[in-house]
Structure formats: structure tokens, C-alpha cells
């Protein structure tokens, strides 16, 4: 998406920026639907995890393309409602779901409420009994063969509490990037079918399944098939939809040659704009085919020269990438534009830390580059 960008306009503000591409966003939605249909052999509906990328324009496009929204806090719920999302297509879940979040979810009749624990479920169940609400209630299942220790409940705990009750409207499971592989996911579905046989669920129950798919353009992940007899599955995704629809641009502040093999490049931006450095947690640093241009917006040729890219926070962990291909003549005043930066960007970082320059966000709707800078959850 970044090959033909009008650099001149985007860099004229002299500020780092994010740029999101609508066409790519829409094609990612269609692609993920197809991938999940192939994996599970049934039509699935998608829910987008708001925390991955809360920019209002992206969320509005997601809404228009019939993707539901997955929110994890009272703030996120209020934000989704303020953006006009149909409550029936909002799903609330996560460890941070407080009683106020439960109450508002039930009051506004959101589609579903996923409780992270049995005691959370009991609390929601009690509140629901006192109010009239169509919201379905589910619990998070987290077997010990999935990474992470503080999330969800085990099969044993769920069977002990809910067997033969038919009380659950759904089950919520997130596999995650570290555990997503065929044997694990197949085992998970077998465990879920065991719970179905033990009558934990109502007749019209739903499985809310977060596979933990990475950026599919980058990872070339092999998708396997899963055997199961579950009829209603909602898929919860984040990066596979958002990552490759966005890129990040920043001006270069300095280039140093401390060693003959590798340059040190410092940009006017950095970790404060991101939830994590530009590496893949499973496979380490990845080459991202960035584009470079000079101060006038003229593209520069990338060479074999290698650089460690640092942000401007001057903190020990502010290395965005240890080994990046850059132009041989890279210099102060040039710009770097990095693809695959549409997820866990600005709003997942610490943007206000020591008052660093904040990036702008642009949105390309096929005709125009619109300034859609995200300010905060209270301002739309
Ligand atoms: C419960 C849950 N659902 C969905 C997501 C979105 O994740 P992904 O980017 O792996 O699709 C996350 C991310 O951590 C999550 O914790």
C-alpha cells in the first residue's frame, strides 16, 4: 500500500504520522472471513477487538462492513456506543469488566457479555435477574495448555459449576499467537464438545473464538482444518484485520556511524507511539520493506546498508528495530515510512510520555487523504 503514496503532502506537517488505507481494511475483512470459513467449515461472523485499533474512522468502516465489535472496558463500551454501533453487535469481555461495565452492558442490551471468571459470571447473572436484558452471558475457558495463567477458567472448574445446568449462553476462548497450532486448537475444540455433551450450554449457545491470528500478509501462516460439530461460532480478531492496513511515517533526526557494519538512526517518533517494537514476538525482528524519501518527498533507494532504528525517548528500550535495511546516503531530514503498522499503534503506546511530538493519522478512502487524528475517547 505504501509504494505510491504522495509523500509530499503527508510530510508537509513535519510530524510523524499514521496512514490507514480503507481498501486494504475491507479486503482484510473479506480475507479473514474466508480463512476462518476454511478452517472451521462453516460461515462465521467476525467481531473486531477494539483495543487493537480504536481509531474512530476505522471502527466506522468496520461497522459498515457488518463486523461486530469486541470491547474490554467501560470506556471502550461508552466509546462504541457513542460511535453509533448497534448494541446487539457489541460484545463486552475481558479481565477489566467491572460491575459498572456489566450494568451498562445489560442496560443497553449488548449482544453478549463474556465473564473472565465464574465469580464474574455469578455477579452478572445476579444483576441480569434484576433487570430486563437480552444480553447473553458467557464465561471464558482457558485450559492450561494455552499460554497465560490468570485468564478464564479450566474445563474442570466449568464442569464442576455448570454441568447439566444449560445456563451458559456461550463460551469465550482466546488462543493467542503463542499457542495457535493445529494440535492445540483441535484439542480445544474436543474439550469444548465434551462440555457440550455435559449440558453446560443453552440450546442456542454461541462459541466466541479468538484464534490469535497475526498479520496474515506478513506471517504466511498455514491455516489448518478443525473437526467439530459446533453450529454458531463468532470469531474475535484484531491484528489480522488491522495490521497491514496501516503504516507509520517519521522524520529522521540523526544518523550516526558508531560502527562500520551498522548505522544508528534516530527518528522523531518511537516506542511512545506503539505498544511494542517492530518485531514479531514469535519470530523476532522482521524486515518490513520500508520506504524512504528525502525532505522534498522524493523516494530514496534502499541499499544493503543496515541500521538500528531508535526512537527519540532516549530510554534503554527505545530500539524499534535492531537491523533495518536503509539507503546508503540516509541523513537527517529524510523520512522513513514503515508498513504493517495499523494495529497496536498510537493508542496502545504511551503517547503523552515526556511531551514528545504526537503523530497525525490519515485515512485514505480511495479518493482523499483525510486527517482522522485520534484525540481521546471523549472526543469524536
Ligand atoms: C480476548 C482477546 N480477543 C481478541 C484479541 C485480538 O487479538 P489478535 O490481534 O490476536 O486477533 C485479543 C488480543 O490480545 C484478546 O486478548
Give your account of this protein's structure.
The protein is α/β, with parallel strands linked by helices. Strands 1, 10, 11, 14, 15, 16, 17, 18, 19 and 20 form a ten-stranded mixed sheet that branches. Strands 2-3-4-5-6-7-8-9 form an eight-stranded parallel barrel, surrounded by five helices. The chain has a two-stranded antiparallel ribbon with strand order 12-13. Helix 5 (99-107) crosses helix 6 (118-130). It has two domains: 7-20 and 245-371, Lyase, Ornithine Decarboxylase, Chain A, domain 1 (Beta Barrel), CATH 2.40.37.10; 22-242, TIM Barrel, CATH 3.20.20.10. The model has no long low-confidence stretch (mean pLDDT 91). Helix content is 25%, strand content 26%. It contains ten helices and 20 strands. It starts with 6 loop residues before the first helix and ends in a 9-residue tail after the last strand. The protein has helices at residues 7-11, 22-40, 56-64, 74-82, 99-107, 118-130, 155-162, 182-197, 216-219, 239-242, and strands spanning 17-21, 45-49, 68-71, 90-93, 112-115, 136-140, 168-174, 201-210, 233-237, 246-256, 262-267, 279-280, 284-285, 291-293, 299-300, 306-310, 319-325, 335-338, 360-364, 369-371. Strand 5, helix 6 and strand 6 (136-140) form a beta-alpha-beta unit. The longest helix has 19 residues, at 22-40.
